[in-house]
Amino acid sequence: MPSHSRTAGRALLAAASAVAVVLASTSCVNFSEEDQAADQGSFTAPPTMQQAPEQPPAPPSDDQGGGPPPTGPCVDPDPAVIATCLASTGGVRPADSSGRSTYVAERTTGKIILSKRYGPQRAVAGVEVDASGDGGLVDFEMSPTYAEDQLIYALITTGSDNRVVRIAPTGSVKPILTGIPKGATGNMGSISFASPTELIVATGDAGDPAAASNPASLAGKIFSIDPNVADPKPDIRASGLGSNVALCPSPGSDGQLYVADSGAPGDRLSLVGPRGLQTLWSWPDRPGVSGCAVGKDWIAVSIAKAQRLDTFMRPAAGSTSVGKPSPQDFRKSYGAVGRMTSVAGAAQMATVNKATRGADVKSYDDRVAIYLPKAGEDLT
After folding, report:
1. pLDDT at 57 over 80
2. pLDDT band at residue 265 using 50, 70 and 90 as cut-offs
3. Region entry Disordered: which residue ranges (predicted)?
4. At 95, phi and psi to the nearest 5?
5. Residue burial 200-223, b: 16+ Cβ < 10 Å; e: rest
6. What is the SS3 assignment for 212?
7. Which of 104, 207, 319, 367 could form a disulfide with 315 if both were Cys (CB 3.0 to 4.6 A apart)?
8. Which residues of 342-355 are buried (b: 16+ CB within 10 A; e: fewer)?
């Protein structure tokens, strides 16, 4: 593991502390019953979204109340790792303001796992998915008022389509938007709340680049919906996206939204505008863009196939110049990283070693770790 990775891990990880959360029941459902949705509750009134203030990470410690740290095949000695022995992962979200605990989707099992270093790990929700190809439990978002309603929104693959669903604390699953094209590949997408009444959805091209440019198709698009109403009408913001589409919203209040995807011209990082994309950087050699996260002064893009992280200087207001990326080699540490999210000035990142050809799968894979990306070229 590179020295800057060890330093970042030590500087970012705190003593394991209990995180008070309300856990939802784990449940798998039948899609024929789900589509009826007659007894699964009504839509909630639009909540008021509030962002918790960003807290700096606390000093690291593996103290377990005076006892020795646990041992076994699921223990990663890296102190920055906060979840281990996961099935192949999808989306990841911080479970507390410091980033010392995490919610992570197991793409292939349909479970959302809550974890902190040394556990315990619990499944807080589950949904039946079709995990063939790159589909499954692709991404998820907690309701803006999750502490009160314990609702979870998810982008999933079923036997017939990709769809946005809402998972209730009882375990029942209600379709929000169905009919997003499904393919043998190109199902990986992303969701993110812009406001309590605006859920941003990014979809892959389902293996059909022509569909991504077709205005009649929801494949390869970025659009918004109001998840609080029945049969929401998608408002298209961008089209022409490829596969492995990952949204990375700004953690601040500026509302900036970035997206990484692998399209026809190659892999790219783009800024999402009101009605289109502005490419900031592209990788013509297609190294395998798989996720992204945004900090105060950096944008990090995970490159799963190449097993590295490329980090850029975040452009100043009114600028689209990100400079050259600063690469961090993960081949001897984390391996292939997929989805990422920003928290407390750093990033949580979920590995996808079990799903990446050529990756060295460890006994404790797949994992979630806290990491401080190294900023790219200084543009000032």
Report:
1. no
2. confident
3. 33-79
4. -100, -5
5. bbbbbbbbbbebbbbeebbbbbbb
6. helix
7. 319
8. bbbbbbbbbbbbbb
DSSP for 337-373 reads EEEEEEETTEEEEEE-GGGSTT----TT-S-EEEE-P
What pLDDT, on a 0 to 100 scale, did the predictor assign at position 1? Answer: 45
Helix (H) or strand (E) holding 213: helix 209-213
Q: What is the CATH number of the domain that holds 250?
A: 2.120.10.30
Q: In a 3-state reduction of DSSP, which class is residue 12?
A: helix
* Residue 183 structural domain: 3-13+22-31+79-371
Output the pLDDT for position 62: 56
Q: Classify 7 as helix, strand or coil.
A: helix
Residue 74, in any domain of the structure? no
Q: Supply the DSSP string of 20-89, one letter for each residue.
A: --PPPPP----HHHHHH-TTS-PPPPP----PPPP-PPPPP---BTTBPPP-STT--S-TTEEE-SPPSE
Rounded CA separation 216/375 (Å): 40
How many distinct helices (H) and strands (E) make up the chain? 4, 24
In this structure, is residue 53 part of a structural domain? no
Instruction: Tell me: pLDDT of 318 over 90.
Output: no
Q: How far is CA 72 from CA 14, 260, 354, 363, in A?
A: 21, 36, 19, 9
Q: What is the pLDDT of residue 376?
A: 62
Cβ atoms of residues 291 and 302 within 8 Å: yes
